[in-house]
Specification:
The structure holds two protein chains of two kinds. In chain A, 79% of the residues lie in helices and 0% in strands. Chain A is an all-alpha fold. The termini of chain A are far apart. Chain B is an all-alpha fold. The chains are: A mainly alpha, B mainly alpha. Chains A and B meet through helix 1, helix 4, helix 5, helix 6 and helix 7 of A and helix 2, helix 3, helix 6, helix 7 and helix 8 of B.
């Protein structure tokens, strides 16, 4: 089904190890940066940013999600808390989507490994799309449910 | 001269790591509480990532063995929705933090995977199947289903958009 082209597994594993080693300082640096930011920024800070204006909040939601990093579980907890505090569903959705699709903290690693132009364009488009996804999701939800 | 040349040869990524380590060093001197908490968080993250590192290494080895540039050209460069479906499923099934997958994607890029498909893969990584039950508990199943469908659809739009934007940039 797939041709091997004079390639043996030992060589393939060596190539993989070399690729990971090249990315090692960026990955380790990113993990260190995420750990520091997660410690410095308290959870209450995120909720205090919203103004209960659906349009502005969706932009803020997307912005806060973009600069945040960590497990998506954390974003569900924040999102749930935001809803309880009265923040609109569009803003919460923008926050949830940008949390997992935009990575400002990972940008140096993404730029170094996948290319600067690619990383910048991907993150900007993901930021804009997170607002569009939020609006579309809530609109469809309102129509269907 | 020789020392300067040696310094120049050090990849920029190491400067990034060194600067973050220096920030940690400063915190260890001036704010030990934040330093210790961050180190604790870091250690916890590293422990969680060891199995993902191993998985990425295994997948990269397998990919180097089986997925040759010819294979990528054959399966991902052809027109049609097949390649998009392939990338969407790959993105959804991949686990671990996004930056762990950059080396593998860079490798696939060198083998012919285009920017749009890489963007599509990265977008779909946002969909975590094991976390869906938890998301349903926090929100509702109707909301989560609609959100996931919209996100898959958007991932393709972002892929097409990025291909066009990168082409325009490359032409200049």
């Amino acid at each position: 089904m797939v041709k091997m082209e004079n390639n043996n597994f030992k060589q393939s594993a060596y190539k993989a190890a070399k690729g990971l080693w090249m990315a090692f300082p960026m990955i380790l640096g990113t993990i260190l940066l995420i750990s520091l930011i997660s410690t410095l920024v308290p959870k209450s800070f995120y909720i205090s940013l919203f103004m209960k204006n659906s349009f502005l909040d969706s932009f803020i939601g997307s912005l806060v999600g973009s600069i945040s990093a960590g497990n998506p579980i954390t974003s569900y907890i924040f999102g749930g808390e935001m809803l309880k505090q009265g923040v609109g569903l569009i803003a919460v959705t923008a926050f949830l989507v940008s949390w997992v699709t935009v990575g400002i903290i990972q940008l140096p690693a993404e730029s170094a490994i996948l290319g600067k132009k690619f990383a910048i364009l991907r993150n900007i488009s993901a930021f804009i799309l997170s607002i569009i996804v939020a609006i579309l999701t809530v609109l469809i939800l309102e129509v269907l449910v | 001269m020789k020392f300067k040349e040696k310094i120049k040869r050090i990849p920029k990524s190491w400067y990034f790591l060194i600067s973050i380590v220096l920030i940690y060093f400063l915190f260890s001197l001036f704010n030990k509480e934040i330093y210790l908490e961050s180190v604790g968080f870091f250690t916890e993250l590293i422990y969680k990532m060891i199995p993902i590192f191993i998985l990425v290494f295994v997948l990269m080895s397998i990919s180097n063995y089986f997925i040759t540039p010819k294979f990528v050209i054959k399966h991902l460069k052809e027109k049609g929705i097949k390649k998009w479906v392939f990338v969407i499923i790959g993105g959804i099934l991949s686990s671990g933090p996004i930056y762990m997958w950059y080396p593998l994607l860079a490798d696939l890029k060198n083998k012919g995977l285009n920017n749009g498909l890489i963007a599509c893969f990265l977008y779909n990584r946002a969909i975590k199947i094991p976390l869906i039950p938890l998301a349903i508990i926090y929100f509702s199943w109707q909301y989560i289903v609609i959100l996931l469908v919209v996100m898959v659809f958007t991932s393709v739009i972002q892929g097409i958009l990025l291909n066009k934007l990168m082409d325009v940039k490359n032409e200049n």
